[in-house]
Amino acid sequence: MTKITAAITAVGGYVPKFVLTNKMLEGMVETNDEWIVSRTGIKERRILKPEEGEGTSYMAIKAANELIEKRDLDPAEIDLVIVATATPDNMVASTAAFVAAKIGAKNAFAYDLLAACSSFLFGMSTAASYIQSGRYKKVLLIGADKMSSIIDYTDRTTCIIFGDGAGAALFEPNEEGLGLQDEYLRSDGNGRQFLGMDAGGSIMPATEETVKNRKHYIYQDGRTVFKFAVSNMADVAEKIMQRNNLQESDVAWLVPHQANKRIIDATANRMGLDSSKVLMNIHRYGNTTSATLPLLLADFEGQLKKGDNLVFAAFGGGFTWGSIYLKWAYN
Questions:
Q1: Is the preceding peptide bond at 319 cis, omega within 30 degrees of 0?
Q2: How far is it, in rounded angstroms, from Cα 65 to Cα 48?
Q3: 5 FRET partner, CA 20 to 30 A, in 28, 30, 97, 209?
Q4: Phi-psi category of residue 15: left, alpha or beta, with phi > 0 → left and psi -120 to 50 → alpha
């Protein structure tokens, strides 16, 4: 029997219209363009304003519809919709279920997946498993986050980093050996003290006091997170190469989470990759959390060739991290 693998057959992306530049941030917190660029590589980020649309689902629907239009796909053929996100529309009703309904995926079941900045990476493993099981033929994985909804724009340690956006990828069966080849995924819950959001969950439900004390915004211990991200993203990317006997010349592209240019550079250096093989759009969007990986695919789709070896790597709160080796399936 021919082995079935799970391949990405279409992608789509969406970023809001409003551009928040470093210059604008200079008027909001004590920082400057040179400092932000030198330490993060970020020049601007996109913010979803209420007059354009509301919630993570708005961007997820936009990215999904672009994919559907490009692929000339009947949404009724989609079996499953997964929305990877750290900022669901609300805490009870599934954002994915709403997105599926709005895009016309009337025959799909749907659910959300949360692993902070690793959400889309972990979602790739999940989507591929459904396809490889043989039970489903079309799985739509969307990474989307409205990070501006949980950012304190008086906190210069976080407000300079994050932006809003969404990206989508369609997974389908492949019999040519293309698609997801291997994965190395990890987590360590001891890391949640260094990157998270105190209030809004079951430990600290929303009260007047939590709102007054700004507990509903994310925080991070920048140095600790940076240290863990550099070592862990580089380690798993190197490990996935070693396990699959990949040399630097075998890898067409590194597809890294867009958190910090220095982290991306360190990962590429550990892999022995030249910067020309690294996909990067952090300067335009900042860290869009669950959306960074699919936005890279959407932005650079025209440069990806059938058979290209792609190595994905991500690190997120929790801590969560990992790497995936995938062969691109189309020109």
A1: yes
A2: 18
A3: 97
A4: beta
Q: What is the pLDDT of residues 16-49, one digit of tens each?
A: 999 999 999 999 999 999 999 999 999 999 999 9
- Structure tokens of 177? 């050996």
Task: Provide DSSP, 2-64.
Answer: PPPEEEEEEEEEE--SEEEEHHHHHTTSS--HHHHHHHH---EEEE--TTT--HHHHHHHHHH
Helix, coil or strand: residue 228: helix
Is the pTM higher than 0.70? The answer reads: yes
- In this structure, of 194-203, 247-256, 278-287, the range with the lowest mean pLDDT score is 194-203
pLDDT digits (tens, 9 = 90+) for 177-218: 999 999 999 999 999 999 989 999 999 999 999 999 999 999
Residues designated as active site: 117, 257, 287
Residue 66 contacts residue 12 (beta carbons within 8 Å): yes
- Alpha carbon distance 225, 219 (integer Å): 11
For the cut 80, the answer to whether the pLDDT of residue 1 exceeds it is: no
Residue whose pair of structure tokens reads 């990962």 in the numeric block: 267
